[in-house]
Write a structure and sequence with these properties.
- The complex is a heterotrimer.
- By secondary structure, chain A is mostly helical.
- Chain A has 2 domains: 82 residues, no CATH class; 464 residues, Cytochrome c oxidase-like, subunit I domain (Cytochrome C Oxidase, Chain A, Up-down Bundle).
- A two-stranded antiparallel ribbon of chain A has the order 2-3.
- The longest helix of chain A is centred in the first third of the chain and has 36 residues.
- Chain B is of the alpha+beta class.
- Chain B folds into 3 domains: 91 residues; 121 residues, Sandwich (Immunoglobulin-like); 93 residues, Sandwich (Immunoglobulin-like), CATH 2.60.40.
- Helices cover 29% and strands 29% of the residues of chain B.
- In chain B, strands 5, 7, 8, 10, 11 and 12 form a 6-stranded mixed beta sheet that branches. In chain B, strands 4-3-2-6-9 form a 5-stranded mixed beta sheet. Chain B has a 5-stranded mixed beta sheet with strand order 14-20-19-16-17, with no helix packed on it.
- In chain B, helix 2 runs antiparallel to helix 3.
- Chain B starts with 6 loop residues before the first helix and ends with a strand.
- By secondary structure, chain C is an all-alpha fold.
- Helix content of chain C is 81%, strand content 0%.
- Chain C has 6 helices and no strands.
- Classes of the chains: A mainly alpha, B alpha+beta, C mainly alpha.
- Chains A and B meet through helix 4, helix 10, helix 12, helix 13 and strand 1 of A and helix 2, strand 1, helix 3, strand 8 and strand 11 of B.
- Strand 1 of chain A pairs parallel with strand 1 of chain B.
């Protein structure tokens, strides 16, 4: 905790030093000159990171200084410190992003209240545009980092039989890069806010209020966290699998995290580059996207979507991982077509990088690009379809144990089916020309990201709750939440498909009277949906303290995280995991995925030939 | 265990598919269509919808069957069968999904794309310019400019050449189903052949709606569209041309000391009358915290600038001197918001 | 570096040294791959916006000179790592210092590049935008590389690293090579195309 306070102090000091230093060096009178803000932020971020742990964890060593003997924090304090235990970091991510999700959800409630009727209801247009933009970017951050950072960090070492990640300190750093992101986004309204959506297209994002700069700095920081986290996950899975854990025996969740991380480490740089260009355009007049200087606003869109399309696969792949994991264990059947599914993940990784311009069919880009991008986008439905094959093949003739995680998993299949099918309408240029920028698009991506990934996220939360907290959640409340959320969710977004087709465009604070009825239904459903999260939050908190103590393996599942206590001891396993077979051995007599052998003095990495 | 476990889901699938196909072919939820392109787009949508029904129904049928035959409220006492794969199922699945994908790539994919785009020829050109937060419509072949509504002749293939003066906007007419972004520094093109008459009064889809977030008033950046017979179009053109050069009725008296104010992204006057050959004192009261300026142009296209005013945010009042100007019907506008509400006549008259 | 950091952080490394080295190497390669995408983005922007055009006023001599300097610095960096692998500490220090020196010369050259660029194609022009962002991002990487070189020289002087344990040296040298390779793409893209 001391370190966090130190980080805050050094961060604020850094901001002030940087701001004034920049003003002096650049000779500008205006202390809030945008370039100065950028420089100030670099100092502030450095101060924060040094204070919060980078100095002790690395810089001391680099300078050859003696390490400082510091008492490690105990108990709840660990979660507010630079703790390198992947389980602590996983929980830090999970709690942080659930809170961010609830905040962004609350913003959505306000948006739906405003949109309940035509005309200005509770807020003016400027406020709406800012709230809408903030809702967008906060939810994007949850979708990108919530599952990967939360469950990825917590579960992957356990599932592969390791006792931590490959780079534990880097892992902590990835997490502690997140608070500055949140702070900058939430401070942005004080600087005028940002009203260009999370997509931040120039020239609007180059000519609007200074709050946009806060957005840019926050997202570049978030990108860094994403890249470092992905790097850690890839290295961990490659080098730290337990004895016998061949690639062909890896749990599907770990495969999904691995695949998503490939995209995360490489493609995120394009988002950073595009935003850096916007920042430099604002701060020193660089003309990448300024037609008057020979630039091209469409370049931004190419760079932006080159990241942001694969980004949605970074979001959904771990969602698929949780889905298939839960479906298998709760159907008591092996995962169907495991190798093909892994192949589908990797095919999605490759294909996702060549479809970006389907977001740009109406952008004014060259006509020759329409056909190829349409074809490639429709092609990606084949590997995505394999996921459905695997899901259906897994539950077929299974013994479907309808606990809360399973309810969310089944709901996700339904939701993503709609999300995926409606994607085809947007991949087809003839229909997309009309549907682009309408509520049809809004409904489509809520079905895929929220109906898909977020429902999977909740499946994971309930599935792994006993393991992480050591307590059982309340099953009745869980089931009610699942059904409530499912019905509420569909009741919000089906009407939005409809108003989109009817001709209502998106990102609008106001709309023609003709679309009012659909919006009213959606808004009321949204309030119903919103309330379901109150039940969820209550369940999570109450069960943590009052829930029944959880056994090691409440679900009788096969993957390694269930072979250890709930919650796991600090070093994860009593005994060294030895893997004999795939985890998907249900129905096999004497099928055994793994067992814990004697504690070996050193962990044998995959340096040994298999 | 049933001897033919496939039967139940197969029947369920057929029933659901039948129900689905009946629903989508009986009920139409498409808004009214006013152009050839709307027919192309909606036909593509309908085809995809029809193809989606059996796909959707299949997944639902499988889920329902699995649930009905396998669900258990308490922990299963034994595992399900060891079925990690099935070559036949995978093979059939791949063949069907790949075929379906190839099918939709061809039609309505490439076929729809070709029909939507059509040929390069056009009967008429309309130039569209978007600026925060209004549209200006120019008919170059007819020599008219419209800013209150866009009137188009039916059954003529129209080529829209679109651009923006500031940020990215998007030109969308829901009733035509066409859309193309308005990009500063570029002219983008889309075409449509209206095939039904109508107007925004009765059809919400007959509007030119900005479809790319462009700031504060993005939602209200729209212009009504009216599709009329050719004869009516010609007479509307004539009337528009005439009105363009007519001064507003309530022009103030001649003065070399003019006052103008801005509020709610609008000037408080549409006409100023000043003497030729003398410097003119302007007092500009910007009543809002949105930046504006006051510039003078010699032409109705607002291309030839005679005087560019300082941009400032209010609430603040600035006084400055401009001119002298030669006699003529000039124009004034706010360069940041070159919309009808912030444009007007700047009449320069000979005489005292 | 492994031993140094383990003690410094008070951090217990559960990986055996062989796996630790393997993990560190993989992590570094992934990081380098990631950074390559950053340079790919700005170079892509260059070709998208300007095709293969370039301005007349490019100081080709200066650019060729600093390119040669950077390539030389990679040679000395290679030799430094090799020296450490054979416990030849004097050669290690000589070559590391040479690398650092070449890096400094490169940065001085970049400073002059900047000054000339400001005169003929300032950042507010299209080529200037592309030029300054690319050279700037690269220079930032050179600078961090130089800091790493200095830190490693300092640690070695204090007695760290040995024939069997010199990850810090290896990582810094590999990073330095990456910075050089990046320049090998940047230099033609900015200076040489449509020769």
């Amino acid at each position: 905790m001391k370190r966090v306070a130190r980080g805050l102090g050094l961060g604020i000091a850094g901001w002030l030093i940087g701001l004034n230093l920049a003003a002096v060096i650049r000779g500008t009178q205006h202390v809030n000159d945008q370039a100065n803000i950028g420089i100030a932020y670099v100092f502030a971020l450095s101060g924060w990171l040094l204070g919060v742990g980078v100095w002790d964890a690395w810089v001391r060593g680099w300078l050859g200084l003696k390490p400082k003997a510091e008492e490690p924090d105990e108990g709840w304090r660990r979660y507010f410190s630079f703790c390198t235990d992947h389980k602590v970091i996983g929980i830090q991510y999970l709690v942080t992003f659930v809170i961010v999700f609830l905040i962004a959800g609350l913003l959505a409630m306000f948006m739906r209240w405003e949109l309940m009727s035509a005309g200005e209801t509770i807020m003016n247009k400027a406020t709406f545009n800012e709230i809408m933009s903030l809702h967008g970017i906060l939810m994007i951050s949850v979708a990108v980092a919530g599952v990967l950072g939360g469950f990825g960090n917590y579960l992957v070492p356990l599932q592969i039989g390791a006792d931590d990640m490959a780079f534990p300190r880097l892992n902590a750093l990835s997490y502690w890069l997140i608070p500055p992101v949140a702070i900058m986004l939430l401070l942005a309204p004080l600087a005028g806010g940002f009203d260009s959506g999370w997509t931040a297209y120039p020239p609007l994002s180059e000519t609007n209020d200074v709050g946009q700069v806060f957005f840019i700095l926050a997202i570049i920081t978030f990108g860094l966290s994403s890249i470092l986290g992905g790097l850690n996950l890839l290295t961990t899975v490659t080098t730290m699998r337990a004895k016998g854990m061949k690639w062909s025996r890896l749990p599907i969740f770990t495969w999904s995290v691995f695949s998503a991380s490939i995209l995360s480490v490489l493609i995120t740089q394009f988002f950073a580059a595009s935003l850096l260009m916007v920042f430099l355009g604002r701060a020193i007049g660089m003309g990448f996207f300024d037609a008057a200087k020979g630039g091209d606003p469409i370049l931004y869109q190419h760079l932006f979507w080159f990241y942001s399309h694969p980004a949605v696969y970074i979001m959904i792949l771990p969602g698929f991982g949780i889905l298939l994991e839960v479906l298998s264990h709760f159907s008591r059947k092996p995962l169907f077509a495991y190798k093909l599914t892994v192949g589908a993940f990797l095919a999605i990784v490759v294909l996702s990088v060549v479809v970006w311009a389907h977001h740009m069919f109406t952008s004014g880009m060259s006509n020759t690009l329409h056909g190829p991008f349409m074809i490639l986008t429709e092609a990606i439905s084949v590997p995505t379809g394999i996921i459905f094959l695997s899901a259906l093949g897994t539950i077929w003739r299974g013994k479907l144990w309808l606990k809360t995680p399973m309810l969310f998993a089944l709901a996700m299949v339904f939701n993503f089916l709609i999300g995926g099918i409606t994607g085809i309408f947007l991949a087809d240029v003839a229909t997309d020309m009309n549907l682009q920028d309408t509520y049809f698009v809004v409904a489509h991506f809520h079905y895929t990201i929220m109906g898909g990934e977020i429902f999977a996220f909740f499946a994971g939360i309930y599935y792994w709750y006993p393991k992480v907290t050591g307590r059982m959640y309340n099953e009745a409340m869980g089931k009610i939440h699942a059904i409530w959320m499912f019905i509420g969710f569909n009741a919000v977004f089906i009407p939005l498909f409809y108003v989109g087709v009817q001709g209502m465009n998106r990102r609008v604070a106001d709309y023609p009277l003709a679309y009012e009825r659909g919006n009213l239904v959606a808004s009321i459903s949204a309030f119903v949906l919103g309330c379901s999260f109150l039940l969820f939050t209550w369940n999570m908190i109450w069960s943590r303290f009052k829930g029944e103590k959880a056994p090691s393996n409440p679900w009788n599942a096969t993957t390694l995280e269930w072979m250890t206590e709930s919650p796991p001891p600090e070093h994860n396993f009593e005994g060294t995991p030895v893997v004999h077979d795939s985890p998907y051995v249900y129905g096999l007599e004497d099928g055994l995925h793994a067992e814990l052998g004697e504690q070996e003095p050193e962990l044998v990495g995959a340096g040994r030939p298999e | 265990m049933s001897k033919r476990p496939w039967l139940a889901p197969a029947i369920l699938w057929v029933v659901l598919t039948g129900l689905g196909l009946w629903l989508v072919t009986t009920f139409s939820f498409y808004p009214p269509r006013f152009a050839h392109e709307a027919n192309v787009s909606d036909d593509a949508f309908q085809l995809l919808l029809i193809l989606a029904v059996p796909v959707f129904a299949f997944v639902i049928a499988m889920m329902i069957s699995s649930l009905i035959s396998g669900k258990t409220a308490s922990e299963p006492s034994e595992d399900g069968p060891y079925l990690p794969g099935n070559q036949t199922a995978v093979g059939v699945w791949m063949v069907i999904t790949v075929s379906l994908t190839i099918l939709i790539i061809i039609n309505p994919g490439l076929v729809g794309l070709a029909h939507m785009r059509g040929s390069d020829e056009a009967d008429m050109v309309v130039e569209i310019s978007g600026a925060k937060w209004a549209w200006t419509v120019k008919y170059p072949e007819q020599g008219a400019i419209a800013s209150k509504e866009m009137v188009l002749p039916v059954h003529k293939r129209i080529r829209f050449e679109v651009t923006s003066k500031d940020v990215i906007h998007s030109f969308w007419i829901p009733g035509f189903r066409i859309k193309i972004d308005a990009v500063p520094g570029k002219t983008t093109v889309t075409t449509a052949t209206p095939d039904k008459t109508g107007s925004y009064e009765t059809e919400v889809g007959l509007r030119l709606q900005c479809a790319e977030l462009c700031g504060l008033n993005h939602a209200s950046m729209m212009m009504p569209v009216r599709v009329v017979e050719e004869a009516e179009f010609e007479s509307w053109i004539a009337k528009t041309r005439e009105e363009a050069s007519k001064l507003p009725e309530d022009c103030p008296t001649l003065s070399d000391n003019v006052k103008i104010s801005a509020f709610n992204i609008a000037f408080d006057t549409k006409c100023l009358v000043v003497p030729a050959g003398k410097p003119i004192k302007v007092t500009f009261d910007n009543k809002e915290a949105i930046p504006h300026n006051f510039s003078i142009y010699s032409d109705p296209e607002y291309e030839n600038s005679l005087s560019k005013g300082e941009i400032f945010s209010g609430p603040a009042e600035r006084s400055f001197t401009i001119g002298p100007f030669e006699a003529g019907d000039d124009r004034f506008q706010c360069d940041l918001h070159p919309i009808p509400a912030m444009r007007g006549f700047f009449v320069v008259r000979e005489g005292a | 570096m492994a031993a140094a950091t383990v003690e410094a952080a008070g951090h217990h490394d559960t990986l055996d040294p062989k796996t630790r080295l393997r993990a560190n190497r993989l992590g570094l390669w992934i990081f380098i791959a990631s950074e390559s995408f950053l340079f790919a983005a700005v170079i892509a922007a260059r070709f998208y916006l300007l095709g293969v055009d370039r301005p007349e006023h490019l100081n080709q001599e200066l650019a060729l000179l600093i390119t040669a300097v950077l390539l030389l610095s990679s040679v000395s960096a290679f030799r430094a790592e090799d020296a450490m692998a054979h416990n030849d500490r004097p050669a290690f220090f000589r070559n590391m210092s040479a690398t650092l020196f070449f890096g400094l010369v490169f940065m001085v050259g970049v400073f002059f590049e900047y000054r000339e660029g400001m005169e003929f194609f300032p950042p507010q022009t299209l080529y200037g935008s592309v030029f300054f962002i690319t050279i700037g991002l690269h220079a930032f990487h050179v600078l961090t590389g130089m800091i790493a070189l200095a830190l490693v020289i300092n640690l070695a002087a204090k007695g760290h690293y040995g024939r069997d344990d010199y990850w810090g040296v290896e990582a810094t040298v590999k990073y330095w090579h990456f910075v050089d390779v990046a320049w090998v793409f940047i230099y033609p893209a900015l200076y040489l195309v449509s020769w």
